[in-house]
From TrEMBL:
Compartment(s) of residence: Periplasm
Family stated for the protein in its record: Belongs to the N-acetylmuramoyl-L-alanine amidase 3 family.
Organism: Pseudomonas arsenicoxydans
Major enzyme class: hydrolase
Lineage: Bacteria, Pseudomonadati, Pseudomonadota, Gammaproteobacteria, Pseudomonadales
Molecular functions per Gene Ontology: N-acetylmuramoyl-L-alanine amidase activity
Superkingdom per UniProt: Bacteria
Protein name (Swiss-Prot/TrEMBL): N-acetylmuramoyl-L-alanine amidase AmiC
Cellular component, GO, one term: outer membrane-bounded periplasmic space
Pfam families in alphabetical order: Amidase_3, AMIN
């Protein structure tokens, strides 16, 4: 008795699993009924399906996604006159899945369910559509997917390097890195605030000193989706010019320049007691997390982010390095936030320095940074973000 019960369970689950993996279910036919209060649309199927529905507005549409199902019939014979359905379209959606789109003349309330074979009928998917008089209302069941999307903002933490007692690099005519990067960072923040789907926090919005460790903490405290530290170089070789983008490296720096830069940027924080260059010995909590597995994923994301930003900057300024460099910048040591450090040009180079202090060039650099990170997030939108939702909407417009 027990054994038989178990066998039934196994058979039941096999029957449930097989149709989706092995052979596609056919959507053979569609039928339509009208009654006073609702419209019933029935799809005749060769077997069971998994399906999802959701609605979109402006214009009103109802989308039905059937996994592992092919359309073998067509909908042209359906008489849609005087119904809420204007037209029915279909297309492939994903691998071997079918999407059916109902173009509607107004919002509807949906009740959908599957019927097993009975009384000479095969498997069926039934959609009952009730017209809604007023504004769109939340549809029941699976429609929740669309209405409850969090659409949250992507949080970008912008870190203008140095500040206060730490001027950063100083040019021949007294141009100060801390001033240049604050302007660029503020312009970038302004641009991000204007863009729907983004929120931005500045590590400093004025001329004051923030320890390196505090900068990392700010990014984590705000649950940043990305951290971008803005700097301007100085090099002993005065001809060195152009922008560079850096990511953290756990091992050695990718070039001698990268090693030098990391030493200089990290050293700027020496005035405080903690020397973050040797963070691994000083702060077991942070150092431990950095070595965590998640680091690899974040580093890969940082490198991708870095190369997208570098690509955007290429049209605005010369590049000092054509690829993303890696070095042990303390300010990038946030284990779970994709982080990059951008050297916008060389304060020590007369030509770069001259441009970097102009409002026009600062704006151009800020725009380049914005475009780079916008492109990155369009390619890699966090699942619950507004941009992810927006892209899903676009995809749904079959
Ligand atoms: Zn700097």
């Amino acid at each position: 008795m027990h054994r038989r019960h178990l066998l039934n369970l196994i058979l039941a689950s096999a029957a449930f699993a097989l149709p989706f993996g092995v052979s596609a279910t056919q959507i053979r036919n569609a039928r339509l009924w009208r009654s006073d209060d609702k419209l019933r649309l029935v799809f005749d199927l060769s077997g069971p399906v998994h399906y999802k529905t959701f609605s979109l507005s402006a214009p009103e549409r109802l989308i039905i996604d059937l996994s592992g199902a092919n359309l073998s019939g067509d909908f042209s014979q359906l008489s849609l006159a005087n119904t809420v359905i204007r037209s029915i379209r279909s297309g492939h959606f994903g691998l071997g899945d079918t999407r059916i789109v109902l173009d509607l003349s107004g919002p509807v309330q949906l009740n959908s369910f599957l019927l097993p074979p009975q009384e000479g009928q095969g498997h069926r998917l039934v959609l009952d559509l009730k017209t809604v008089a007023s504004l769109p209302v939340a549809l029941p069941s699976e429609a929740i997917q669309d209405t409850t999307h969090p659409k949250r903002d992507i949080i970008v933490v912008v870190d203008p390097g140095h500040g206060g007692k730490d001027p950063g690099a100083v040019g021949a005519k007294g141009e100060r890195e801390k001033d240049v990067v604050l302007s660029i960072a503020q312009l970038l923040a302004k641009r991000l605030k204007r863009e729907k789907g983004f929120d931005v926090k500045l590590v400093r919005n004025d001329d004051f000193f923030v320890p390196l460790r505090k900068r990392v903490e700010i990014a984590r405290k705000h649950n940043a989706d990305m951290f971008i530290s803005v700097h301007a170089d100085a090099a002993p070789r005065l001809t060195a010019s152009g922008a560079s983008v850096y990511c953290l490296s756990e091992g050695g720096a990718t070039s001698a320049t990268a090693r030098f830069m990391a030493q200089r940027e990290n050293g700027a924080d020496l005035l405080g007691a903690t020397r973050l260059l040797n963070l691994k010995d000083k702060d077991p909590m942070l150092a431990g997390v950095i070595l965590d597995m998640s680091m690899n994923a974040t580093l890969a994301a940082s490198l991708q982010l870095g190369s997208t930003v570098l690509g955007s900057l290429a049209g605005i300024t010369t590049l000092h390095q054509k690829r993303v460099e890696q070095a042990g910048f303390a300010v990038l040591k946030s284990p779970d936030v994709p982080s990059i450090l951008v050297e916008t040009g060389f304060i020590s180079n007369a030509r770069d320095s001259q441009r970097l202090v102009t409002a026009r060039h600062q704006q151009a650099v800020a725009n380049g940074l914005f475009e780079g990170l916008q492109r990155y997030f369009q390619k890699n939108p966090p699942t619950n973000s507004y941009i992810a939702w927006q892209q899903a909407q676009k995809k749904a417009q079959v």
